[in-house]
Amino acid sequence: MTKLRDVCRHVRSKQAGPFWITFDIFFNGRENFERYSGCAALSPAQFAKLYGTDPERVKHIPVADLEMVKISFPRPTPQGGMVERDMHAGQQYVRLLDVTID
Question: The pTM is what?
Answer without folding.
Answer: 0.92
